[in-house]
């Protein structure tokens, strides 16, 4: 008869397989979500929690865009000139490592890693996966050629999937009633020839305006 014994080491392996989180002996960082798509100009909240074994106390915790190496600590994001006015640590020294980053640009698109150091010499941790930030602009996509009578769809294009946004469409600067990513124009006429732009509800950044020509 074969019996399955759950030893401490198999339970660690099971934990990794089931959660994808490497929490060796209680050391771990969990980001929610694991990747983020943000609109240029918006504020991003990176949800984060961390764990460590009992008996340790946190001396220092910070975020970085670099991984720790065998010889050096990664640079602290809050001391980086490109970030220092825009990052805010919303976490604590117990288990919350949530970070806020405002006014994001495409240059911020990279991986972010949380690092924490305890008072004990070997009590340090940084996970290897990090959290991926994608930053998108908005771009109005139109068909190359539009002829009177066509049904036309304009799309508010993004380079990553924003979660649950409501879109706003503008025709010559005036908002339209459509709130979806695609703007459908039925049987177009010269009245539809105009300048179109799109935005996301609650965000100030909008796309460039695109002229729709109707032949
Ligand atoms: C962590 O802190 C943030 C900001 O204060 C809060 O919104 C979030 O709910 C906290 N997360 C947990 C798991 O406590
Ligand atoms: C974005 O969403 C679309 C439609 O739901 C899906 O087909 C596509 O794979 C998603 N792209 C990414 C990068 O998740």
Automatic annotation (TrEMBL):
Keyword Magnesium assigned: no
Lineage top rank: taxon: Eukaryota
Residues of the Ig-like domain: 131-215
Keyword Signal attributed: yes
Keyword terms, alphabetized: Signal
UniProt-listed Pfam families: Ig_2
Classification via InterPro entries: Ig-like_dom, Ig-like_dom_sf, Ig-like_fold, Ig_sub, Ig_sub2
Record's signal peptide: 1-23
SUPFAM superfamilies: Immunoglobulin
PANTHER family associated with the record: B-CELL RECEPTOR CD22-RELATED, VASCULAR CELL ADHESION MOLECULE 1
The protein's name in its UniProt record: Ig-like domain-containing protein
């Amino acid at each position: 008869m074969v019996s399955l014994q759950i030893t401490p080491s198999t339970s660690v392996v099971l934990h990794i397989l089931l959660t994808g989180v490497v929490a060796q002996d209680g050391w771990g960082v969990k980001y929610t979500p694991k990747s983020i798509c943000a609109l240029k100009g918006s504020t991003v909240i990176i949800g984060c929690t961390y764990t460590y074994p009992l008996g340790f106390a946190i001396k220092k915790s910070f975020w970085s865009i670099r991984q720790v190496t065998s010889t050096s600590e990664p640079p602290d994001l809050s001391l980086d000139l490109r970030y220092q006015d825009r990052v805010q640590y919303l976490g604590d020294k117990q288990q919350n490592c949530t970070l806020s980053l405002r006014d994001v640009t495409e240059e911020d698109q990279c991986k972010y890693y949380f690092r924490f150091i305890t008072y004990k010499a070997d009590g340090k941790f940084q996970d290897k996966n990090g959290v991926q930030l994608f930053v998108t602009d908005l771009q109005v996509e139109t068909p190359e050629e539009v002829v009177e009578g066509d049904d036309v769809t304009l799309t508010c294009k993004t380079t990553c999937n924003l979660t649950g946004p409501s879109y706003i469409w503008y025709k010559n600067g005036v908002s339209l009633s459509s709130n979806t990513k695609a703007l459908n124009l039925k049987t177009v006429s010269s009245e539809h020839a105009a300048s179109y732009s799109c935005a996301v509800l609650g965000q100030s950044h909008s796309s460039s305006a695109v002229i729709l020509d109707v032949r």
